[in-house]
Amino acid sequence: MSVRCARLSGMPAPLMLVDAPSLYFRAYFGIPESAAVGPDGQPVNAVRGFLDMLASLIRTRRPDRMVCAMDHDWRPEWRVALLPSYKAHRVAPEGGEVVPDTLSPQVPLILDVLDALGITTVGATGYEADDVLGTLSVTQPGPVEVVSGDRDLFQLVDDARGVRLLYVGRGVAKLADCDDAAVQARYGVPAARYADFAALRGDPSDGLPGVPGVGEKTAARLVDRHGDIAGVLAALDDPDAGFAPGLRTKLTAARDYLAVAPTVVRVALDVPLPALPTDLPATPADPDRLLELAERWNLAGAVRRLVDALAARTD
């Protein structure tokens, strides 16, 4: 995937929309627990790593607005009703998402630190962080940079509105700054058709089976030829559509899945959200509380790096 890291001179600073769960999960698994603990021995590796990621993003991208999106519902019932396999492998025996025991207590601490800094966080009942990000990307003035390691968010890229994906699948230090050409180069489909492509290909990490026997190249060819899954399904009813017999058999067998998969994969763009402050502060909103949190949890270094990044933005 091509990396386009330079923003054109003279362009306004972006709104940075952060997929918080994507980043703090990566931070948790990227930093050993033993390397970051509070005075009582509780791991704070996800917190420290997450704060350092934000500091790096702010230093290098220099946004003037930021919102961190949260998962208030990691597996929405409306998606499960359409496709019961959706994230089913990640459901804990007692219900809820399988999350490491030492990560769960760190999420409220992340929220506390962000609140003391004055960085807005938001989630919505019945929706994933992806849906919050999608809605903000189409309702907030651009330019917009969405930060995530989730491939599904390639569908949000929109050159006309100035929406890019800063894909951190290989880490923040190696982020790929993706416009539509980058998505096309990597997957062979435009960003606007990524959801159809992903539904055909499938994604085991989300419990999306895809069409058995249809990989990325075939999925891209189908989207290129028929436009979207609705076009593929319509073509199945045309004996002259030119499908190879084996491919027609595979697609026909997956017709029921294909009828619902695009809705499951597509990010919602109409999540009901309150009016949100988006301005990124130059100084902490509550410095006393931030200092108390930093000292209580041995986070002074990470907090200082983030505060310095915020201040340097206005230099």
Architecture overview:
- The chain has 13 helices and 6 strands.
- The protein has 315 residues and is an alpha/beta fold.
- It folds into 2 domains: 15-192 and 268-312, 5'-nuclease (Rossmann fold, 3-Layer(aba) Sandwich), CATH 3.40.50; 193-265, DNA polymerase, domain 1 (Orthogonal Bundle), CATH 1.10.150.20.
- A 6-stranded mixed β-sheet has the order 3-2-1-4-5-6.
- Strand 5 (163-167) and strand 6 form a beta hairpin.
- The radius of gyration is 21 Å and the shape is globular.
- The chain starts with 14 loop residues before the first strand and ends with a helix.
- Residues 1-9 have low confidence and may be disordered.
Question: What labels would you give this structure?
Answer:
315 residues; DNA polymerase, domain 1; alpha/beta; six-stranded mixed beta sheet; 43% helix; globular; Rossmann fold
Protein structure class? alpha/beta
The 3D shape can be described as globular
What's the CATH topology label of the largest domain? Rossmann fold
Q: Just name the CATH architecture of the largest domain.
A: 3-Layer(aba) Sandwich
Residue runs with pLDDT of under 50 for 5 or more positions: 1-9
Rg calc: 21 Å
Query: How many separate structural domains?
Result: 2
> What share of the residues does DSSP label as strand, in percent?
5-15%
The CATH class label of the largest domain is Alpha Beta
- Biggest sheet strand line-up: 3-2-1-4-5-6
Number of DSSP helical runs? 13
Main sheet, how many strands, which sense, barrel? 6 strands, mixed
Order of helices and strands: EHHEHHEHEEEHHHHHHHH
Instruction: State the CATH superfamily name of the largest domain.
Output: 5'-nuclease
Q: What is the CA–CA distance across the termini?
A: 33 Å
Q: Average pLDDT value?
A: 93
Helical fraction? 40-55%
Number-wise, the strands total 6
Keywords: DNA-binding, Exonuclease, Hydrolase, Nuclease
InterPro entries: 5-3_exonucl_a-hlix_arch_N (IPR020046), 5-3_exonuclease (IPR002421), 5-3_exonuclease_C_sf (IPR036279), DNA_polI_H3TH (IPR020045), FEN (IPR038969), HhH2 (IPR008918), PIN-like_dom_sf (IPR029060)
Function: 5'-3' exonuclease acting preferentially on double-stranded DNA.
Domain 5'-3' exonuclease: 13-277
